[in-house]
């Protein structure tokens, strides 16, 4: 479907009528390409998507949502790659999508920094970029069209507010399992949580370390916390998977998760919600992974030259144990 240039589209933003005329006058054959690309009809939009990895239940649900939304029946030829949590793999995938001359590149950046060079290459090739889930810290916002995802600072704040309101009237030693170092959700959730507990002198973060958003590293790091501290009251884990790994470590140490050590996590995927309903976790702030439908809609608009919102914030909820038990039977992910 690529029959206009990125620069033409950028200039035409806000003048949809004129652009529609330009597009229909161009006619044009599709250049859908890439491993997953097929179809190749006039209306097929080729999209190269670089995923962070397969580190968590959240990520699995997010990948499913994207693959089920950017389908051939829906007018897309999707090339999908898994970066295995490595920025260099994502940069390589993006360069390969540029070489394939896809219509749109979308990706969820494993870390926030270090994207300007490759995004400038995409811009020079007139290929629009859409960010999903995680942000980049580029100062030049013309390097991408739109960023669809949750407000991670708000998620951390919500977790911290619950802790301060429900447990902050007594001394509380907190350990924190951070997400991947340098990733937007790790940076923002930490900042949000800290700002919500700031000023409450009862609450102290006594240890904080990355568990890389995975269950195995969550377990490993929690084992270390338990060896170093015999006075942990609460665990704040930046995602459910690390919290679930930590539960294994807590149980192996002969303690009862949710009672001896209270647990607050973020994501609200099924396994986390089950542990919450079972009383092993105390509170979960949701991070909605179902970004596929929004990505499909925004991609179509970008290709049609329509103006799109630079930032699309996804709505999240939060669950205590009773709410989790109620939500579980109809939970989608
Ligand atoms: O970027 C979203 C985060 O990445 C999710 O909270 C976490 O589970 C995932 O790995």
Low-confidence residue ranges:
2-41
Q: Describe the sheet with the most strands.
A: 6 strands, parallel
Second-tier CATH architecture of the largest domain: 3-Layer(aba) Sandwich
Helix percentage: 40-55%
Number of helices: 12
Mean pLDDT: 90
Estimate the global geometry from the Cα principal axes.
elongated
**Class derived from helix and strand content:** alpha/beta
CATH class of the largest domain: Alpha Beta
SSE topology string:
HHEHEHEHEEHEHEHEHEHEHEEH
Count of β-strands: 12
How many domains? The number is 2
Distance between the termini: 33 Å
Radius of gyration: 22 Å
Bound molecules: alpha-L-arabinofuranose
Indicate the CATH topology of the largest domain. Answer: Rossmann fold
The strand order across the widest sheet is: 2-1-3-4-5-11
CATH homologous superfamily designation of the largest domain: Response regulator
> What fraction of residues sit in β-strands?
15-25%
What does this protein structure show overall?
The protein is an alpha/beta fold and 333 residues long. The chain folds into two domains: 9-150 and 288-315, Rossmann fold; 152-287, 3-Layer(aba) Sandwich (Rossmann fold), CATH 3.40.50. Helix content is 41%, strand content 18%. It has twelve helices and twelve strands. The chain has a six-stranded parallel β-sheet with strand order 2-1-3-4-5-11, sandwiched between helices. Strands 7-6-8-9-10-12 form a six-stranded mixed β-sheet, with helices on both faces. Strand 3, helix 5 and strand 4 (129-132) form a beta-alpha-beta unit. The chain is elongated. Alpha-L-arabinofuranose is lined by residues 55-56, 58-59, 133-134, 185, 213, 239, 241, 266-267, 287. Residues 55-56, 58-59, 133-134, 185, 213, 239, 241, 266-267, 287 line the site of alpha-L-arabinofuranose.
């Amino acid at each position: 479907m690529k029959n206009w240039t990125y620069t033409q589209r950028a200039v035409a933003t806000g003048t949809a009528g004129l652009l529609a005329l330009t597009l229909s006058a161009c006619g044009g054959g599709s250049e859908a390409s890439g491993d997953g690309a097929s179809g190749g009809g006039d209306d097929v939009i080729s999209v190269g998507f670089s995923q962070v990895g397969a580190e968590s239940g959240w990520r699995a649900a997010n990948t499913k949502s994207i693959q089920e939304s950017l389908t051939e029946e829906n007018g897309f030829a999707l090339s999908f790659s898994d970066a295995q949590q490595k920025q260099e793999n994502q940069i390589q995938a993006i360069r390969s999508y540029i070489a394939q001359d896809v219509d749109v590149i979308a990706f969820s950046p494993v870390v926030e920094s270090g994207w300007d060079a490759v995004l400038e290459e995409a811009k020079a090739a007139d290929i629009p970029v859409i960010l999903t889930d995680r942000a980049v810290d580029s100062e030049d916002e013309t390097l991408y069209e739109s960023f669809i995802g949750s407000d991670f600072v708000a998620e951390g704040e919500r977790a911290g507010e619950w802790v301060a309101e429900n447990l902050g009237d007594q001394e509380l030693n907190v350990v924190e399992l951070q997400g991947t170092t340098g990733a937007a959700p790790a940076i923002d959730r930490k900042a949000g949580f800290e700002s919500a507990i700031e000023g409450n002198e009862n609450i102290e973060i006594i240890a904080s370390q990355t568990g890389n958003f995975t269950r195995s590293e969550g377990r490993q790091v929690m084992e270390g916390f338990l060896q170093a501290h015999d006075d942990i009251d609460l665990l704040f884990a930046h995602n459910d998977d690390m919290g679930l790994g930590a539960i294994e470590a807590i149980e192996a140490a002969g303690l009862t998760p949710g009672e001896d050590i209270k647990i607050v996590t973020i994501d609200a995927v099924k396994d986390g919600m089950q542990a919450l309903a079972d009383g092993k976790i105390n509170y979960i702030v949701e991070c909605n992974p179902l970004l596929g439908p929004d990505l499909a809609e925004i991609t179509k608009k970008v290709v049609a030259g329509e103006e799109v919102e630079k930032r699309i914030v996804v709505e999240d909820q939060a669950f205590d144990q009773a709410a989790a038990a109620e939500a579980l039977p109809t939970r989608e992910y």
